[in-house]
Amino acid sequence: MSKNVYVVLGSNCFTGSHIVDALLNDPSNQVIGVSRSPEPKDLFLPYKRRQAANFQFYQIDLVRGFAPLVRLLDEVKPQVVINVAALSEVALSNERPVEYFDINTLAVVKLCNYLRTCSYLERYVHISSAEVFGSCDLPVTEEALFNPSTPYAVSKAAADMYLNALIKNFGFPAVLIRSTNVYGKHQQLFKIIPRTVIYLKLGKVIELHGGGKSIKSFIHIRDVVQGLRLAIERGRPGAYHFTVVSPQTIADVVYQICRWMGYDAGRATRVVGERLGQDARYWLDCSKANRELGWAPQVPFEQGVREVIEWVETHWAAIQQEPLVYVHKA
What we know:
Layout: E1 5-9, H1 14-23, E2 30-35, E3 55-59, H2 66-76, E4 80-83, H3 90-93, H4 97-115, E5 123-127, H5 151-170, E6 174-179, E7 181-183, H6 192-202, E8 206-209, E9 218-220, H7 221-234, E10 238-242, H8 250-261, H9 265-268, E11 269-272, H10 287-293, H11 301-314, H12 316-319
Parallel strand pairs: 1-2, 1-4, 2-3, 4-5, 5-6, 6-10, 7-9, 8-11
C-alpha cells in the first residue's frame, strides 16, 4: 500500500515504536505517532536512529483528549489507523480496573464508532491479546470463545467483541492482531527477557513466580510486525494469530539466558509465590495467518535473545540509570 498515511496510536510503547520503525522503511509512507506521554528516551525508540522527515509525533491522550485526536485524524486523513495504545500490566489491573476499561475498552469504542463514519479509512488495525482466551490446553483459533482471567484480559476481550460487532454490522475494515509474548531490543526493562539480562549483570537474584512453571511462547517483535503488515496488505476483516510453537516455561527461558551469558542459574534465581490470575499457558493457532497471509516466524529464539543481550551491553551506562520496575502513569 504505497503513499499511505498511517496513524499509530501508542507509538511510544515497545510494539508501537517498532511498527513506526518498520513503516518508515518506505519513504513514501507518512507516519504519525500519537501517545499520551512525551516521547521517551531514544534507548526505547528504534525509529530514532533515522532522520525521518516522514514522521511526526503528537502528544494526545486518547481518554482525556478525544476531540484533539479527531481533529488530527480529520486533518491528516489516514488510510490506516493502528491502535497499540493500552494499559497492559496485568497485575495492576486487579487494583485499578477502571483505568484499564477506560483506555482498553471505552476509548476503543469511542474511537471506532467515529472511524466507521470516516470515508478516508481503509484499514483499522487493533492490537489485541492472547490473554482474552485465558489458559489454553490446546491451540486456539481466532474463533475460539473468550475466557479471560483478569480485568486486563476482560477489558481487551470487551474491545474485541465490540470490533467484531462493527465488522458484522457495518463492514468495518478492522483487523485484530493477537500474539503471545513479544520480545526484542528496546523493550521495557522490567519485562522478563531484558530484566533477566540486566539482573545477571547486576548480580541481582531473579524471582521465578510460581517456580516459573507457566508456559510462554516468545515471538520476536520483527515477526509480529511483519505479520501485521501482511494483514494490512492481504488480510480480511477479523482476527489473525501470530505465535511460535514452544513448550518453554519462564524458568526454561531464564535458565537458557543464564547459560548463554555464563551464569549459574541455581544461584541466580529463587522461587516466589505465583501472581494473581496467572494463566498456565497461552497457546494460539496461527494456521490462518500461515494460510491467508503466507506468514511464518523467521527469528530464532536464541538469535533474538542474543540481540537483546547485545543491546543491553551496548547501552549499559544508560540502562543503569533507568528504573527496572513498571512505573504507572495515571
